Amino acid sequence: MEPLSSALIALLAFTIGGATYVIQKMNQRLLEMKNLSNESSIAIEQDVSILNEALHGLLDETDASRQLDGSDALLRAKRALSTLNPTSDESASEVASHLVPILDRLLLEDTVSESYRRLDENRRDILRDLVAVASTHSLSPSMMFGTNDLLLRTFAEASLILGDRNMAIAALTESERIAPRNESTLMLLVKLARESGDDIALKTRLDRLLEIHPDDETLLRERAHVLSRLGDLSAERDSRRLEALGVQTASDRALLAGLRERAGDPATALEEADAALKEDPTNLDALFLKARLHHIRGENTRSLQAVETLLELDRQNGPGWTLRARLLELEAEHLDEALKSIIHAVAIGEPEWVLKADLLMRSNRLDEALESLYSVLERDPSNGIVRAYLSLLKMSEGEIEESSTLLHEAPQSAWEVADMHIQRGRLTLYAADRSRDGTGVHDRGLIRGALSFFDSALERDRENALAWLGKGRTQRQLGEIQEAEECLVRAGRLDPDETMITVELALLRIDQDRLQDAERIIHEAESALNDTNVLHYVKGLIAAGRGNNDEARRRFDDVLVRDPYHVRARLNRATTAMLLGDHPVALEDSERLLDAHPELDLARIIRAEALMGLKQWDWAEIALQEILDRKPQHVPALISMGVTLCALDRAEEALSPLDEAIRLSPENPDAWHMRAQFYIEQGTLSAALSDLEAAIRVDPRHMESLLHAAAILHEIGPSEKAEAAWRRVLDIEPTHRLARTRLTEIESHSIET
Question: In the chain, what are the domain boundaries?
Fold first, then answer.
């Protein structure tokens, strides 16, 4: 045995070149020795086994080394890493020259991950370093491997094992470009897209795989879910194909039900959900959808039953607890249970902080609600939903500065959600309401500023009902009636339960002078309106539109009792009081408005008119001059100043502001009418008649101008023109007593002559 051991040691000393030859010759020699000595066969066989194991191990090592182009390849690769010039054009080929041998070895194995584990630690280190160098020096996979899609894919898999997803994606994308129908590449890209949540990329790769395997059950099912998440209703096509293949599951039916709901077919959606539950009564998706559909249909008892079943099966179902809270909050006696449900939903991860805060406030726990919301912002300052809601709360409490600060201090990322832009629009409308000057032009400019914010909200969420509501409200105030109606109708489709949409539609009908329609709309919504102030305010406007000033005033009184700071109610009460001749109330309302909102020049105009009504002309002049000192082109103030100066017997001064008002706003019938009054006072009836006719051209229904023009013509003739003028009055107001009387006089005079 001694000579054999010596031979073994000698053989193990052989290097790369003769390893295979040595193994062959030694096997032959050992077999010969076995034949010569049967007595020592057992010992010889043992030595043969040892020799074979050792030499095959050597062969493996030499083959691996050969893959690295020589016995010193590892050393050279390590040296290359330290000397690599990132600016050199040869960087990519330098890296690739060391990567390719290792990747070639990986390709010999069944899987990259398995073969990577079989590489010795030195080779793994080299692979890690080479991938890192490629990434650091921005060497693209295509620069290193050209159009070899197999090497690209192998490099991608190795990069994934080493944790470099970006490099892996780059390599796979290039491999896909070269071989777009390679299933291995596509499956890897599907895996990466799935892990990253990139549904668009996932759909693209699933589309290509389904071109290869159009009836693959797994692929069809996954694409259906992806399309559903993307809001693409063509997901139903895949769902129907699963049905046709006879492999549709209860989960597939639940998905189809959701698609039918999204397509605006809740009845079919409910049928599909019920079918899914018949097949599998424990299907959570179908149960939740059934509950939601019953809720949408107003079948809250059935909805609650489905939710309770869902929660019995899955106590950690956050959306289920949230829906339960929304169902229970509808009944005051269940408010505590609703609060418990939403607290649990939030505790298990549902981001329903706003609903939680709302229920806390309704439970008279305002401090807890605010504390809860502020704690969310402390943890996540970028939470735009909570920030916008807090701003709305502060706005409703009259804390406008803090409300604005919450928005101004928001990080840029908070503005990614529509809620922030909606709230900014609300604040803009709020500010516009409190700085109107009554000119129309100025008011439109203030209100239009809000429109861009609601549009910004819709750019982020086209299905946001509150954004459409805000835009509709703004367009109504701008007089863009048709556009406002389209926005409000769309908002109503998105959220049929939002009562303020109904209120806005009623206000729109008032602006259209469709008072009966407005009354019907607000009557139908009355039971759902929690805010009685809104109800009284709208009914007050309807009464005012009908000329029922006593009722209008009572309605505005009711609003102000509950909310003394309601700006529009106080403005409207002041106007109504003026019409009723109650100038002291109008004066008091205007003073209170100015105390709270010094920039509200519309209130200054009302104050001046109230003083004029009280014949306190000196004070009226002072009030008007306050406006004109800041806004010399304020047309309503110029008109009222002309009237005031006439009353103060300063006719020589009165004409100038009236002329300026007409120059600035020739489309304003009041300006022409008031200058006509000045000419009447001066006895210049022809000039007065000319101005009155100008007022009527601007506004053919301007009753005061029609009456004065008819009166002048009645006095100076001819009778034919006077008769025509009185008939213009009757065309608008058929029962007008004075016009009837004067027409009778003209007819009688005609008969006599």
Answer: 2-67, 627-663, 666-753
Our separate counts of H helices and E strands in the chain read 43, 0
Two structure tokens written together for 206: 């699933």
How many Å apart are CA 576 and CA 210, to the nearest integer?
71
DSSP-assigned letters across all residues of 560-614: HHH-TT-HHHHHHHHHHHHHTT-HHHHHHHHHHHHHH-TT-HHHHHHHHHHHHHT
Chain Cα centroid distance, residue 553? 40
> d(Cα 156, Cα 182) in Å, to the nearest integer?
14
90 pLDDT tier (thresholds 50, 70, 90): low
At residue 97 the predicted structure's pLDDT band, cuts being 50, 70 and 90, is confident
Alpha-carbon dihedral sign for residues 154, 157, 159, 164: positive
Backbone φ and ψ of 120, nearest 5°: -70, 165
Task: Note the CATH architecture for domain 666-753.
Answer: Alpha Horseshoe (1.25)
> How far apart are alpha carbons 482 and 479 in whole angstroms?
9
Handedness of CA 465, 471, 476, 480 (dihedral sign): negative
Query: pLDDT of 376-398, one tens digit each?
Result: 999 999 999 999 999 999 998 88
Structure tokens at 724: 């025509």
User: Token pair 């490629």 is at which residue?
Assistant: 134
- Distances, alpha carbon 624 to alpha carbons 173, 246, 665, in Å: 73, 82, 18
From the number of C-beta atoms within 10 Å of its C-beta (0-12, 13-18, 19+), residue 423 rates as buried
- CA atoms of 122 and 124, how far apart (whole Å): 5
**Which tokens is 11 given?**
């053989």
User: d(Cα 405, Cα 424) in Å, to the nearest integer?
Assistant: 11
Q: What is the distance of C-alpha 720 from the center of its chain? A: 64
Determine contact, residues 171/155, Cβ cutoff 8 Å: yes
Estimate to the nearest angstrom the gap between the alpha carbon of 617 and the chain centroid: 53
Task: Tell whether omega for the bond before 718 is within 30 degrees of 0, i.e. cis.
Answer: yes
Rounded to 5°, angle at Cα 507 from 505 and 508:
60
What is the spatial distance between Cα 620 and Cα 605, in angstroms, rounded to a whole number?
9
Give CA–CA dist 663/675, Å, rounded: 12
CA distance 149 to 517: 70
At 254, list the tokens.
């639940």
How far CA 472 is from CA of 7, 447, 628, in Å, comes to: 98, 12, 33
The answer for residues whose C-beta is within 8 angstroms of residue 709's C-beta and 6 or more apart is 689, 692, 693, 696, 725
Residue 626 predicted with pLDDT over 70: yes
* Secondary structure class of 464 (helix, strand, coil): coil
CA distance 48 to 27: 7
If we measure between CA atoms, which residue out of 78, 85, 98 comes closest to residue 144?
98
As a whole number of angstroms, the distance between CA 195 and CA 411 comes to: 28
CA distance 407 to 91: 50
Q: How many CB atoms lie within 10 A of CB 565?
A: 12
Angle at 663 between CA 660 and CA 668, to 5 degrees: 100
User: Cβ neighbours of residue 751 under 8 Å, at least 6 residues apart?
Assistant: none
pLDDT in tens, 565-595: 999 999 999 999 999 999 999 999 999 999 9
Helices (H), 348-382: 353-362, 366-379
Closest CA to 235 of 245, 227, 243: 227
Give, in order, the Cα–Cα distances in Å from 320 to each of 284, 363, 494, 610.
10, 22, 21, 59
Question: What distance lies between CA 62 and its chain's CA centroid?
Answer: 63
Residue by residue, DSSP assigns 29-93 as HHHHHHHH-GGGHHHHHHHHHHHHHHHHHHHHHHHHHHHTTSTTHHHHHHHHHHH--TT-TTHHH
Burial class (CB in 10 A: 0-12, 13-18, 19+), 89: exposed
